Amino acid sequence: MEKIIKPRHPEKIKNPINPIKKKPDWIRSKLVNSREFFITKTIVNKSNLVTVCQEANCPNITECWSKRHATFMIMGDTCTRACGFCDVKTGKPEKLDLFEDIKIANAVKKLDLRHVVITSVDRDDLPDGGSNHFKKVVDTTRKKNPNTTIEVLTPDFLRKGESYKKLLEADLDVFNHNIETVPRLYLKVRPGARYFASLELLKNAKNVNKNVFTKSGIMVGLGEKHDEIIQVMDDLRSANVDFITIGQYLQPSVKHHPLERYYHPDEFKELERIAKSKGFLLVSSSPLTRSSYHADEDFAKLKQNRINSH
User: What is the per-residue burial (b if ≥16 Cβ within 10 Å, else e) of 250-279?
Assistant: First the structure.
């Protein structure tokens, strides 16, 4: 009889193999092979910029880049966190690019963007979490592109005190920070983050700048329960979040957090109905919904919905 050797410290085994489930028919990226896609790609590459579209292997990249929509990721391509769902590489980041603000501002100008989304990796190595650098990028972008609306998708600035307030001093239109998943799954999915700290950040952002739209997103398919999703909606509304995005988690590799299941489009429609009943100004809920997906069109809807609500 073959002897089975058990590991001495099973809890220390890293990167378990989690087979990737086959995608259903309703999850298909739009393949767009257009001149605009290559123009966007050329501008991004020649500017030596990082985009979350590429680093996180976004399924919507061809569609968005064909519309010249790119989400810029600042402060490098290396994150100090190791979230179980994310495809951005983890490690020790390089020094901040002191000319990044100018590069971003010029790229936005070349792409002629009506609305730009600027995000970043987590930079726990910086005393302010990168808030000052983030503000610098927004300020320069605003100066160079006065008619472009600006949305930031920020890290949580965990244990950085009130450093986030520096970013909120900038001329922002949308402040976005993703809650990502339900509290029960945080230790597995977002081990370096804290659910209630993220909620507090969103709440404080609205208190500091009452004119800014606040936004947050959640992924489904990680093993959450229906009532837990509803609780997250309630928590976000308690934090006065205006806009919620709900999208399908797509497992990047066999070493990432396992995909529990794919939600059917009808389930996304039901989650959208429930979220709207909670009082969000805007809800985007579909299998391929991502934070930056259709961000420019969504911002126009946000402004109109705010007017209609008064």
Answer: bbbeeebbbbeebbeeebbeebbebbeeee
What's the per-residue H, E or C state across 252-283? CCCCCCCCCCCCCHHHHHHHHHHHHHHCCCEE
221 compared with 20, residue with greater pLDDT = 221
Q: How far is the CA of 224 from the CAs of 35, 107, 180, 185, in angstroms?
A: 41, 39, 11, 7
| Residue 114 pLDDT class (50, 70, 90 cuts) | confident
Structure-block tokens of residue 230:
């509803």
Question: Which pair of tokens denotes residue 69?
Answer: 């929509």
Q: What domains sit in the chain, N to C, each tagged with a CATH number?
A: 31-305 (3.20.20.70)
Query: What are the tens digits of pLDDT across the range 139-191?
Result: 999 999 999 999 999 999 999 999 999 999 999 999 999 999 999 999 999 99
Sheet with 149-153, edge to edge strand ranges:
71-74, 115-120, 149-153, 174-176, 213-220, 243-248, 282-285
Amino acid at 114: R
- Angle of helix 226-238 versus helix 265-278 axis, rounded to 10: 30
